[in-house]
Design a protein that fits this description.
The protein is an alpha+beta fold. The chain has one domain. Helix content is 18%, strand content 43%. The protein is built from 3 helices and 13 strands. The strands form 2 sheets. Strands 1, 3, 4, 5, 6, 7, 8, 9, 10, 12 and 13 form an 11-stranded mixed β-sheet that branches. Strands 2-11 form a two-stranded antiparallel sheet.
Length: 223
């Protein structure tokens, strides 16, 4: 009888465990930059599709949590992606390309390895090949204004990003909407204007600089 009671108790605990939401292991803020408008009218998007939008920058600023058992509190990682077609174009599946991953120089070797694996896991098929891994100091402030559309990111002489909120003067054709979704799983994504976004590093056979594009997403993440 005691054994039966104990088995029933264990079974009940297992069911409760499955029904109880599990705590998220890692969370923080997210910034995404694309080399084409993501907040736009269909006429603008169709004009750009296949010609632009083949580059992206994905920035994860981790507040708390660990990955593969390694604490990543306060660290950051950036994936700079280049593809052969417009990112988000549903005719181009899967979205995959090459990437340079920039890991936070403030982290230890173990933490940098975990940051690399985290970025690859979050980007999924988007990163088909990592061409280079670079270590750099990363200074970032994401969602720092009232509307949470203002951000700045700097990674040595590799990355320079500044965004602002979308305003009335940014509505050019009158029927703008968020045309493309974010490239990764995030929460509360909202578009913003990229004032400047520059990648000046090696590893992708191209560098680029954007100014005044409606091409940014700011969001949060919990995994």
């Amino acid at each position: 009888m005691k054994l039966t009671t104990k088995l029933l108790a264990l079974s009940a605990a297992a069911v409760i465990s499955q029904l109880t939401p599990q705590a998220h292991a890692i969370n923080g803020d997210y910034l995404e930059i694309r080399s084409c408008d993501i907040y736009t009218g269909p006429c603008f998007a169709n004009a750009e599709m296949g010609l632009t939008g083949k580059e992206g920058m994905l920035v994860w600023s981790i507040k708390n949590g660990e990955w593969n058992g390694v604490s990543l509190n306060g660290l950051k990682v950036i994936a700079v992606v280049a593809t052969e077609a417009t990112l988000g174009d549903l005719r181009y599946e899967p979205n995959s390309g090459k990437a340079v991953v920039i890991v936070d120089a403030a982290g230890s070797t173990q933490q940098q390895d975990a940051l690399l694996d985290f970025a690859k896991s979050m980007a999924g098929n988007l990163i088909e090949e990592v061409t280079e891994v670079k270590s750099s100091e990363i200074d970032s402030s994401l969602g720092i204004c009232k509307e949470a559309g203002c951000a700045s990111v700097k990674a040595g002489n590799l990355i320079d990003i500044s965004t602002r909120c979308i305003g009335d003067k940014d509505h050019l054709c009158g029927n703008e909407r968020t045309f493309y979704p974010p490239l990764t799983k995030v929460d509360g994504a909202h578009p913003a204007v990229t004032q400047v976004a520059a990648y000046r590093g090696s590893g992708l056979d191209r560098t680029w600089q954007l100014t005044n594009y409606r091409s940014a997403f700011l969001a949060t993440f919990e995994y």
